[in-house]
Automatic annotation (TrEMBL):
Residue ranges of every copy of the Vacuolar sorting protein 39/Transforming growth factor beta receptor-associated domain listed in the record: 473-571
Domain of life (superkingdom): Eukaryota
InterPro entries (alphabetical): Vam6/VPS39/TRAP1, VPS39/TGF_beta_rcpt-assoc_1
Gene Ontology biological process terms in this record: autophagy; endosomal vesicle fusion
Entry GO terms, CC: cytoplasm; membrane
Protein's recorded name: Vacuolar sorting protein 39/Transforming growth factor beta receptor-associated domain-containing protein
Pfam families: Vps39_1
Length: 911
């Protein structure tokens, strides 16, 4: 095992008997000799006993090669000055402790004439913690308060920053640990939290680290102003770090497991780059969760750094640690040079420790990148031989070894058939062949390695080199995913960046019946015909796959814009299941930026379908291609998702008319006496059966605001018996008289005709003469009728009178009276005439009122003009613009009446 520390004996001052048992051990580099000689490196050891006394000893730092023991020489004693939370802050030049229940500061080095500075607002202090590099100190009092101070280098004293109430139950708070200028760790009896010293907010530890802790110690972090902290439980310890970017606590490295026979440690000390863990019988030296040395030192219960790694860089002495092994006995640990430790690790083939040492101390253990990659490669081969495949693959990735060399460690069957094993440069001393459970575990590691290898950022030459092996990498990765039954197989196959060999992939996935993955691979590689043929093949399998292949076929075709393929593979679906097949075209999932199938081509395709299993729909069954085309056009027009050509709107009407004609022909076949058969009902809503459903669909489409048909083209194709449909077509053409004639004399629905007039007038398609046209059409029926209309009955006159009364404001009186029969009694029109007179009088009164208002307005305007003309403004030779300040010598200018100022016309503010 590598020697990280050498053990040196420490001789105590036998002439001094005042220190019986040490409870607190501190070291200060500010000795009395350093005041006269700044280069002196003799530290002062401050030992606190159970009585609260501080005993000062002087010693010397160990040298790199000396094997002589160290000596402690007693200097002086300070009574009632020690505390469990006492701190030596050399850069501040103070010794911080708690005395008489107050925070007390004393200058360093401690002298006989000790001048202390108590902080009165910390009365009742029970704990303190300071971060020397960050310049922050935290003091906890019995009054449930947390006092935060900043150290002022300029003034040489503490400055109060803030005071917080301790969250949760303060009686359960055991200690506090300041790890940066604004974050402290609060250790309660049953939990541990992080506390923000500025905002007062608490932050929980990660899940799995929230059990009650035995102790927590500060560990030097990557930044001088922020430390990590090591938390100790009964079975293990974890290094934690506060991540400022994510505002959370994260674990660093792997947990450190305690030796089962030793139990939890007595003391833990972070001595960069190592972690010293003191047990009852020995002290372990831990490097990133790896025990690199075990020192046979018994009863070690206090550890203190004589010289830290950061301090040793500016001194000739190596980093060292002082260990209290008894009531008043010590040993010293001297760190061996890191370069020697690195060479020792490499010679002993302890590559993991060597790499960890290089990462922790990149300056002292600097090695070229090529050599570091070589170490990673040797570690990877070592781990692979030990069957630690996951960690081995991580080291392979760090070594940047050619991927072909890693693949050569696996069975040949994983490689593509086009690439033979001999083409790869195999690693020296390759492990034995893999099989069984070892092969399965190795494949899981290989999957992680290849996925990470594919995700590496590449530019320039590296990108070109990866393109040369991408097919091999992706093919092997796909096979490994299949063999390990990895759930990400389908996701990998559906990636467009997948460069796996198509033939190898197809054969391998078929051999293992991974149909969803094969379908996703076909789709990603744009092999749509193969994908659709696979779905057809799955439909004939027995038993069928878990997912319905027919539904998958529909979903596939919805996303496909290849018109020939969509038409070819949708035909069987439309024939066997018309509704399901029709959804391929009515619910398209092609992105708007990509070309989709042409609706005109879809209509032609649907019209050619011969349905073998019509849908069970009584009204409008999908029984043939025409019904499919009607359903398709209806849905895409009403959906209004994409523009539809006007010609297809006309095509929908033609298809509906053809379907109606077909239904009429069917009705004629049922009854031989076609001459006596009345097929079309005057009112569409009264038509029954399938013919009625078709007519209602046609009428709704003709009346829809989304319809873009050409009524002049469709009118000649519409049978004269379809009166209501023809009326809508005529209305769309603006032929109001013919529409009213159909409503009034063919359909015989005056209310419908009146509603039509209201719609025309409200939509401003026609003017008020539409109501006069209504009367004219109603009062003068066509002369071609078989009978002539005689004098209007009392019922007819009553309707005319009410109609004229309702629209008295819009009907021309003279024209209306001319249309009435000469024998019409005045009593029938009394209400209408009275209403006309009221409207005339109302219009006259409105005109009179408007005229008077205009006169009044004219008088006001004249009065304002006269008042304005009476006002005057004196403009002298020195008059200047209130905006630009220049004189009003030339050009147009104006007077602001509200402000009482003059300005150039061009300087006036914008309205």
């Amino acid at each position: 095992m590598t020697t990280a520390y050498d053990v040196l004996e420490v001789e105590n001052d036998r002439s001094y008997r005042g220190c019986k048992k040490i409870d607190r051990l501190l070291v200060s580099l500010k000795s009395s000799s350093s005041l006269t000689n700044p280069f002196a490196t003799a530290p002062t050891v401050l030992a606190g006993d159970a009585s609260g006394n501080v005993h000062a000893f002087s010693t010397a730092l160990p040298t790199t090669s000396s094997t002589d023991s160290l000596s402690l020489h007693f200097q002086q004693q300070f009574k009632k000055f020690s505390h469990d939370c006492a701190h030596v802050l050399d850069s501040w030049g103070v010794f911080a402790t708690i005395a008489d229940a107050k925070l007390v500061l004393a200058p360093l080095p401690l002298s006989k004439d000790l001048a202390t500075t108590p902080i009165d607002e910390t009365k009742g202090a029970i704990a303190l913690s300071a971060h020397e590099s960050a310049g922050a100190l935290v003091c906890l009092t019995k009054q449930q308060s947390l006092h935060v101070y900043d150290w002022s280098v300029k003034n040489g004293k503490l400055l109060a920053r803030s005071t917080h109430d301790v969250p949760d139950k303060p009686s359960a708070l055991q200690s506090v640990l300041c790890i940066s200028s604004d974050v402290a760790v609060l250790i309660y009896k049953r939990k541990t939290t992080l506390f923000h010293l500025d905002t007062g907010r608490s932050l929980e530890l990660p899940v799995g680290c929230r059990e009650p802790v035995l102790q927590a110690v500060r560990i030097p972090g990557p930044l001088p102003t922020q430390d990590d902290f090591f938390v100790v439980w009964r079975t293990h310890g974890v290094l934690l770090r506060f991540d400022r970017a994510q505002h959370s606590v994260v674990t660093v490295g792997q947990p450190v497991q305690w030796a089962p026979s030793a139990g939890p440690p007595r003391a833990v000390l972070g001595h960069h780059p190592f972690l010293l863990v003191a047990y009852a019988e020995h002290i372990d030296v831990v490097l990133a969760s790896l025990v690199v040395q075990s020192l046979s030192i018994k009863s070690g219960h206090l550890l203190v750094s004589l010289l830290a790694h950061a301090q040793a860089t500016s001194m000739t002495s190596p980093p060292s640690v002082l260990v209290a092994t008894g009531p008043a006995s010590f040993v010293a640990l001297r760190m061996a040079p890191l370069t020697e430790q690195l060479q020792s690790h490499l010679a002993a083939e302890r590559y993991a420790e060597a790499i960890t040492l290089c990462r922790a101390c990149p300056i002292e253990c600097h090695v070229p990148d090529t050599e570091l990659q070589s170490i990673h490669l040797r570690l990877a081969m070592q781990l692979f031989a030990q069957r630690a495949f996951n960690t081995a693959m991580e080291s392979f990735l760090e070594s940047k070894v050619a991927v072909e060399q890693v693949l050569a460690l696996f069975p040949t069957e994983l490689l593509p058939r086009s690439r033979h094993r001999l083409e790869f440069t195999e690693l020296a001393a390759a492990p034995a062949a893999l099989s069984g459970d070892e092969l399965s575990a190795a494949l899981h590691g290989l999957v992680q390695y290849l996925q990470a290898y594919r995700a590496l950022p590449r530019t320039g030459l590296a990108k070109v080199q990866f393109a040369q092996v991408a097919s091999v990498v992706d093919t092997v990765l796909l096979k490994a995913l299949v063999l390990t039954q990895d759930p990400s197989l389908e996701t990998f196959c559906s990636a467009t960046s997948n460069a796996a060999d198509i033939g190898e992939t197809e054969v391998f996935l078929r051999a293992h019946a991974r149909w969803p993955a094969l379908l996703a691979f076909y789709k990603a590689q744009a092999l749509h015909r193969k994908g659709l043929e696979l779905l057809e093949e799955l439909q004939t399998m027995d038993p069928k796959p878990h997912k319905d292949p027919q539904a998958q076929m529909v979903a596939y075709l919805k996303t496909l814009g290849d018109e020939p393929l969509v038409c070819e593979f949708s035909r069987p679906l439309l024939q066997a299941s018309p509704a399901l097949g029709l959804s391929i075209f009515t619910h398209r999932l092609v992105p708007p930026t990509e070309p989709d199938v042409d609706p005109a081509l879809v209509v032609a395709h649907l019209k050619s379908i011969e349905v073998t299993a019509p849908a069970a729909d009584d009204d409008l069954p999908l029984e043939d291609g025409r019904a499919l085309a009607i359903a398709y056009l209806t849905q895409i027009v009403y959906a209004n998702a994409r523009p539809v050509a006007a010609a297809l709107h006309d095509e929908l009407v033609y298809l509906l008319l053809d379907a109606i004609a077909h239904q009429v022909a069917q009705l004629h076949k049922k009854k031989r006496e076609a001459q006596s058969l009345i097929v079309f009902h005057t009112r569409v809503r009264m038509q029954k059966g399938r013919l009625g459903a078709l007519r209602r669909q046609l009428l709704a489409f003709l009346q829809s605001p989304l319809s873009q048909h050409h009524p002049e083209r469709l009118l000649s194709r519409t049978p004269v018996e379809m009166i209501e449909e023809r009326a809508v077509l005529l209305a769309n053409m603006g032929r109001h008289e013919e529409v009213l004639r159909l409503y009034l004399h063919e359909i015989k629905d005056a209310a419908l005709a009146e509603d039509y007039c209201n719609d025309v007038y409200a939509s401003k398609v026609g003017d008020a003469s539409i109501y006069t046209l209504f009367l004219q059409t109603y009062m003068r029926p066509p002369t071609t009728k078989a009978f002539r209309l005689g004098p209007l009955s009392s019922i007819g006159l009553a309707f005319v009178g009410k109609f004229m009364l309702r629209h008295a404001a819009t009907i021309d009186v003279a024209t209306a009276l001319e249309l009435l029969p000469p024998a019409t009694e005045a009593s029938a029109l009394s209400a209408y005439l009275q209403r006309v007179v009221e409207l005339k009088l109302e219009a006259r009164r409105n005109a009179q009122v408007q005229a008077q208002l205009l006169k009044i307005e004219n008088l006001h305007v004249r009065a304002a003009l006269h008042a304005a003309q009476q006002e005057s403004v004196d403009i002298g030779a020195q008059a200047a613009c209130s905006v630009c300040g220049r004189k009003l010598e030339r050009g147009a200018f104006l007077f602001d009446k509200d402000e009482g100022t003059l300005m150039h016309y061009a300087c006036q503010p914008a309205p």
